[in-house]
Amino acid sequence: MSKLLIVGTVAFDAIETPFGKTDKILGGSAPYIGLSASQFNVESAIVSVVGGDFPDEYLQLLSHHNIDISAVEIIPTGKTFFWSGRYHNDMNTRDTLSTELNVLSDFQPVVPDNFKDSSVVVLGNLHPLVQSSVLDQVVNKNALVILDTMNFWMENTLEDLLQVIKRVDILTINDEEARQLTNESSLVVAARKIYTMGPKYVVIKKGEHGALLFNKENVFFAPALPLEEVFDPTGAGDTFAGGFAGYLTKTNDFSFENMKKAVIYGSALASFCVEKFGTERMCHLDSKEVFRRLQLFKNLTQFDIELT
Ligand code: AMP
User: Is the distance from the beta carbon of residue 150 to the nearest atom of ligand 1 less than 6 Å?
Assistant: First the structure.
């Protein structure tokens, strides 16, 4: 069976949206990626770190979704990575109020032996040196490597980030960050510039406006499902990446045609994530609901047109 290796933050998040506010709840890039990918019943593992303040029930929750958590290191005397953010009324933009790296500051990741041959590796959003170190330990040289990042790392660790970007196949990034990374306002030009940095494929996430998949020859667009209620967009980008990677792991087909389907799966799963605060919706999601939503996506995007 193909395996999926995930590295990312496991965090406490405090979130404010126009609909409410949460105290410290389960967050971080890795849980969103893992929970989303768990819909595909692939073997997956998270490499990350938490402090002694992190509730065991959160780790068990991940484990109950068949995610191997043996490589989530616990530093008993340390504090878990903490992020807080506040969304604007449009729910598409947010301000980061605080990022406390805590135990992430000197984290040395160790990839479990049985995941060194993973066929897909997601270098989720966290310190680029940690992403590089995970990649150093992967022995499958044909592994598909997907990297996600955000403005925080561009602003604080750009050189390290550029080094790891050189080594990956696919960069997933949001529109604002693609512009920041490349200094280009056109996303098409930004994607073209990103190929020169290393990746052969670029996925640009545009929140409620969908996602674009590029390689040198092709471009594909998937809309986001128009939803009546968006409660909390936190983790939607990671959920997208988890669905995208989970589908590719399950099918083991890394062609552009199959990546188009992976984008649809990623978008469908992200549309659930935003319906409740934090990871709550992703923790209680069954395959029938996913199937129905994929049907909605199909109806939304299918049209017949006679081109003469
Ligand atoms: P997204 O909404 O997809 O960008 O992901 C939000 C998640 O990313 C939250 O659960 C945060 O804990 C996590 N996060 C926020 N800032 C960072 C950062 N600088 N590095 C890694 N993860 C982060």
Answer: yes
